[in-house]
Amino acid sequence: MLYCVTNRMKEAPKKPYTIKEAVEHIGNLGGPRRAPSDGPPGVKTVWRGLQKFYTLYDYREMFDFMGQV
């Protein structure tokens, strides 16, 4: 679900990505797009990204429960 949200796709990739890539995707949810030379996202950005991801996950569960997804 994380990959689909951050890349705006309906299908997840066949190969799972690494923890580093997952943290980068969460960081993208938590803040603006960054330059590649900036390094990994900070704690605050990851925290914001996790909060947004949990909210999106809750909505998905709600729609699954209602049979709309």
What do you see in this structure?
- This protein has 69 residues and is mainly α.
- It has one domain (2-66).
- It is 61% helix and 0% strand.
- It has 3 helices and no strands.
- Helix 2 packs across helix 3.
- The protein is globular.
- The mean pLDDT is 82.
Short key terms for the protein model shown above:
69 residues; mainly alpha; 3 helices; 0% strand
Please provide a brief summary of the model.
With 69 residues, this protein is mainly alpha-helical. It has helices at residues 2-7, 19-30, 43-66.
What is the H/E order? HHH
The helix content, as a percent range, equals: 55-70%
Number of strands: 0
Query: How many domains, as an integer?
Result: 1
Task: Give the arrangement of secondary structure elements.
Layout: H1 2-7, H2 19-30, H3 43-66
